[in-house]
Amino acid sequence: MSIPRPAAFVAVGSELLRTERVDTNSVLAGRLLAPYGFAFVEKRCVEDNTDAIATAITELLSRAELVLVSGGLGPTADDVTREAAAQALGLALERDPRLETTLVERYQQRGREMPAIALRMADVLAGAEVLPNPVGTAPGQLLRAGNRMLVLLPGVPVEFEQILSQHLLPRWSEVNGVLTTTLRLAGVYESQVEQRVSPLYDRFGRERVTILAARGQVLLVLSASGDGARSRLAEMEAAFSAVAGRDLYGSGGDTLAGVVLALLAQRGWRLATAESCTGGMIGAQITAVPGSSASYVGGVVAYSNELKQRLLAVPKGVLSSSGAVSRETALAMADGARTLGAECGLAVTGIAGPDGGSDDKPVGTVHIAAATPAGVRHAHHQFPGDRAMVREITANFALDLLRRSLAERE
Questions:
Q1: Which residue has the higher pLDDT, 19 or 162?
Q2: In angstroms, how far is CA 360 from the centroid of its own chain?
Q3: Topology classification of domain 177-251
Q4: In this predicted structure, what is the pLDDT of residue 134?
Q5: Relative to the CA of 16, which of 72, 94, 263, 378 has its CA 20 to 30 Å away?
Q6: 256-407, CATH topology level
Q7: Is the pLDDT of residue 53 over 80?
């Protein structure tokens, strides 16, 4: 058995120390890095302070081959990770003209004037490699210092995962002779996936499979090593994909919203959303994908019954007889979304909590409706967790319901 390569993690953010926000990036990174031979020997959480971050980087680089830093790469004054890394390594920060151009173009595409402070996101450590951010604005950075590696990544979980998965894991794919691939499932829970794939453990080895839960999504990280690793991994991917069936929506760096947009583009259909309990989270996932405006016309966030009636044409009789959180209302919202100028409508209505539940409709009750030219689908769920969890799971399950509706035409 090979000896794990020591790695360390620094979570940057005063909010992680002084509020109820929890660092989840280190857990995700630990699981994703394990198949590549890395193991965390230490994790730290530090405030938005240049000296504190620099000290952590200096100390951890002295005993870890890889140091991952999450957070503090945005445009505001408290985003000081770049400056801290420069201080720790005695390097200058240099303005990257290509990044500067990219930033200006992104703001222009969004119809916004770029504030001067945003150009800080184009500052790069001298000698560092820029790691493009496919779903956000602030890029990551990779710097080699002797036999050590320092990686700076955004703290937003989806951005952190995408940069790590797309730009770093592939280059470490043959560390210690290990190859990996990631299968992405949606609309299913971790325990369900475990039950379905467990018969394959005897064939491929339990230690070669990592299951990661992501609130409405599940990642299957498969690995193989030794002679014939590539063919063995291909065999694993085929076997696990077959077991995953329709729950499998992609692999590698695919995103659920990206897959949905690709399916819409294939059919020449447009989408509009109608959101109640998620408050725009579905639209945010969709618009995080570059070029989303080609298929996404926009959406309505309608919490009150008045807005549901006025903007989405939900009949007053439906609201009074079935209630705002019901199958009938979800279907009417999806149909109303289509009147915004789209062939497809996706709607959610539910009770995210912590208040508002009842015996008949407890907290976590959610109704989702997806309407396309091929038909209408509805799903009723009772999601677990607090308000944030219910909203996030709802957004992912909703996108997945639409994905399945679109895929049925294939």
A1: 162
A2: 33
A3: Alpha-Beta Plaits (3.30.70)
A4: 85
A5: 94
A6: Maf protein (3.90.950)
A7: yes
**Ramachandran region, residue 111 (left: φ > 0; alpha: ψ -120 to 50; beta: rest):** left
CA–CA dist 398, 283 (Å, integer): 11
Class assignment of domain 5-172?
Answer: alpha beta
Query: Both tokens of residue 140?
Result: 């990551």
Q: pLDDT tens digits, residue range 316-325?
A: 999 999 999 9
pLDDT band of 2, cuts 50, 70, 90: low
Bridge partners (DSSP) of residue 386 are none
Rounded Cα distance, 391 and 283, in Å: 13
Predicted structure pTM score: 0.75
How many CA atoms does the CB half-sphere of 212 hold within 13 Å? 20
Rounded CA separation 372/366 (Å):
20
What confidence tier does 86 reach under pLDDT thresholds 50, 70, 90?
very high
What distances in angstroms separate CA 285 from CA 158, 279, 296, 353, 399, one per listed residue? Answer: 10, 12, 11, 22, 9
CA distance 5 to 306: 59
Residue 363 is which amino acid? V
- Of the candidates 132, 244, 145, 268, the residue with the CA atom closest to the CA atom of residue 196: 244
The answer for residues whose C-beta is within 8 angstroms of residue 293's C-beta and 6 or more apart is 287
| Amino acid sitting at position 44 | R
- Listed by start position, the domains of the chain span 5-172, 177-251, 256-407
As a three-state string, the secondary structure of 221-243 is EEEEECCCHHHHHHHHHHHHHHH
1 pLDDT exceeds 50?
A: no
